[in-house]
Amino acid sequence: MKEAQELRAGNTVKIANDLFLVQKMVYNKGARNASMVKLKLKNLDTGASAESVYKAADKFNDIILERRPMQYLYAGNDQYTFMDQETFEQIDLNKDDLGDTLNYLKEQMVIEVVRHEGKAVGVELPVNVELKIDYTEPAVKGDTSGKVLKNAKLETGFEIQVPLYCTTGELIRIDTRTGEFVARA
């Protein structure tokens, strides 16, 4: 059991009969020991997000989830197929299960699939991924004052802002938590 004030982003808790992933936690110290915790929770069954306020001393059942490295194989009919690296078992996840992960997902990529009681409930990407720029405008000569960025379309179809020196066909590193350019690969 964990108190609400001990929860952090990434923890999984059970409320009633549903599993929730803590996406954000804000602690507010109130007057006369009335501290409150504001949690942004994602329901792992429905995918719906909601914000709730709890007393800092409220208790939650902390759930430990199993994480398995799985390789992304292919997509078809809004189903994305992954293969366990040890047992070669294949599972399908739908578009809603993956969410923003689709922006960074390419074939043969190995990611962590999060499971609870044998059922896949989500995925975790590495902090940084390397993707190729499919298209970006050439840099404009003389436009170098300050931090100048331009649009780039990546091999997955995702668009991000990159520095002027990046070119089409170049491999770059992206932070999956923020969706921002990190460096050339």
Question: What do you see in this structure?
Answer:
- With 185 residues, this protein is mostly beta strands.
- The protein has three domains: 2-62, Roll (SH3 type barrels), CATH 2.30.30; 66-124, OB fold (Dihydrolipoamide Acetyltransferase, E2P), CATH 2.40.50.140; 128-184, OB fold (Dihydrolipoamide Acetyltransferase, E2P) (Beta Barrel), CATH 2.40.50.140.
- 2% of the residues lie in helices and 55% in strands.
- It has one helix and 16 strands.
- The strands form three sheets. It has a six-stranded antiparallel sheet, with no helix packed on it.
- Strand 2 (12-15) and strand 3 form a beta hairpin.
- 18% of the residues are buried.
- The mean pLDDT is 86.
Outline of the structure:
With 185 residues, the protein is mainly beta.
CATH topology of the largest domain: SH3 type barrels
Order of helices and strands: EEEEEEEEEHEEEEEEE
Instruction: Give the % helix.
Output: under 10%
**Roughly how many Å apart are the termini?**
43 Å
CATH architecture of the largest domain: Roll
What coarse outline follows from CA principal-axis ratios? flat
Helical stretch tally: 1
Average pLDDT level: 86
What's the total count of β strands?
16
- Biggest sheet layout: 6 strands, antiparallel
